[in-house]
DNA sequence: GAGTGGTCTAGACCACTTT
DNA sequence: AAGTGGTCTAGACCACTCC
């Protein structure tokens, strides 16, 4: 055997999720069923399920079963939206403005997004926090994967739920690059600050359950009242 | 049994590390030895060791053994120092200036640091990246735990190695709160930027292997050439 | 009561490192 | 050759959920 048997179990389950055979929130076969199907022992199926749980791909509940991780609007939004009150309280963003366009991919977009798309959708949004316009976001998606997303406006606040429910893309990881920048004229107007005021710029590349880079996002935040909070380990 | 047996194994090992009986980098007993010592099966000792490995507390190597995680200057520094080149390359900071003082703890320091210390050490440093003064840092430590650290100046660039090797504190987790701020007069002078220029302010609370909050740190970074990079999942 | 995952054991064989 | 961790199996009992 070139690879461990539990890896075969993992691959099988991830493939079934990716193909839509297993839906987010849906129940997986039990340890015994999986073991019998794939031809391994119950302990090996168990190890695979535990590893999938560690990766956040499945959730296991004693007495009930194993389920494909369904990111709720709450968990999905706040796992990747890190702005918090200074005491750590979560805040619900509210949509102020939204534009969706389809256009040619820039060279860097084509090179960094999955499958090197020639066309992308760009979702531009301005959202408020606690009644104050606080975020400007631009999300860029490969058009082949998210076909027709421009006809779904207005989009929900939690985009990743939309990706999951309508396009089968479960976002599990995002790499972010953070800088302090001075507000330009457009940003100052949209966020109601002075030009040159310090803003937090966050550039993100989000990956789905198969590790495919499926979204580039650039966000600009006011952080005079709120903070970006993260844990390192 | 109120708690799982593997938890007993974990607690035993963590206690031995915390007490100095097991040193960072040192070898742990084998799975069989641990099982015999604590009175569990080899599989249970194995599970405990694997969980400790996931938490980054031990490292396991096939054919060699299990070892207490020794954070090298490289891994320790760059796991918690997130400034990178825009392409992700790591950068080695160099010390420009350092001051260590002992003083009364502020109320918030006393309340958030381990054991509510009345006295703290404060380490103020300015460091350069790629030849440009880029970071101002202030680390605040409980004096009872870090007794005499003020006599160790000049300190190494990787403070967490010092904490580990001389005070038995292995830093494994840090909660950070990030804001974009405008440079004040002092910061502008130290970092050679205009007053009001955007800077990244990072406030950190670092916890050791026992979960004790042992350092408050406030850093201010220039991010015009570099970026703070982090992965969310 | 039936089915699920959680814990624990005992043993086997393999791959790797060290002596 | 001896010792280590890595994989895999088979089986037991428990705690929990659902019917």
Model description:
2 copies of one chain form a homodimer. The first copy, chain A, is of the alpha+beta class and 233 residues long. Chain A has 2 domains: 5-68, Winged helix-like DNA-binding domain superfamily/Winged helix DNA-binding domain (Arc Repressor Mutant, subunit A); 73-228, Chorismate lyase. Helix content of chain A is 28%, strand content 35%. Chain A has helices at 5-18, 31-38, 42-54, 73-80, 107-112, 159-167, 185-191, and strands at 58-61, 65-68, 83-84, 94-104, 119-129, 132-142, 171-182, 198-208, 213-221, 227-232. In chain A, the strands form 3 sheets. In chain A, strands 4-5-6-9-8-7 form a 6-stranded antiparallel β-sheet. In chain A, strands 1-2 form a two-stranded antiparallel ribbon. In chain A, strand 1 and strand 2 (65-68) form a beta hairpin. The interface between A and B is medium-sized, with 33 and 33 residues. Strand 7 of chain A pairs antiparallel with strand 10 of chain B, so a sheet runs across the interface. The first copy, chain A, binds a DNA duplex (19 and 19 nucleotides) through helix 3.
Characteristic key phrases:
233 residues, alpha+beta, Chorismate lyase, 6-stranded antiparallel sheet, two-stranded antiparallel sheet, 7 helices, elongated, DNA-binding
Brief synopsis:
2 copies of one chain form a homodimer. Chain A is α+β, with helices and mostly antiparallel strands and 233 residues long. The first copy, chain A, has helices spanning 5-18, 31-38, 42-54, 73-80, 107-112, 159-167, 185-191; strands at residues 58-61, 65-68, 83-84, 94-104, 119-129, 132-142, 171-182, 198-208, 213-221, 227-232.
């Amino acid at each position: 055997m070139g690879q461990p048997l539990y890896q075969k179990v993992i691959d099988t389950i991830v493939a079934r999720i990716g193909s839509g055979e297993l839906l987010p929130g849906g129940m997986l076969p039990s340890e015994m069923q999986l073991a019998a199907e794939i031809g391994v022992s119950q302990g090996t199926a168990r190890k695979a399920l535990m590893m999938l749980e560690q990766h956040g791909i499945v959730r296991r509940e004693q007495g009930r079963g194993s389920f494909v991780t369904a990111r709720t609007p709450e968990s999905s939004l706040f796992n990747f939206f890190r702005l918090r009150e200074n005491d750590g309280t979560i805040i619900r963003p509210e949509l102020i403005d939204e534009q969706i366009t389809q256009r040619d991919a820039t060279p860097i977009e084509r090179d960094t997004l999955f499958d090197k798309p020639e066309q992308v959708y760009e979702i531009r949004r301005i959202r408020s926090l606690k009644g104050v316009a606080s975020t400007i976001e631009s999300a860029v998606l490969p058009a082949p994967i998210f076909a027709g997303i421009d006809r779904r406006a207005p989009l929900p606040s939690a985009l990743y739920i939309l990706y999951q429910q309508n396009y089968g893309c479960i976002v599990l990881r995002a790499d972010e690059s953070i800088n302090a920048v001075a507000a330009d004229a457009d940003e100052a107007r949209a966020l109601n600050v002075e030009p040159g005021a310090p803003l937090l710029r966050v550039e993100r590349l989000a990956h789905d359950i198969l590790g495919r880079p499926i979204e580039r996002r650039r966000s600009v935040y006011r952080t005079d009242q709120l903070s970006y909070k993260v844990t390192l380990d």
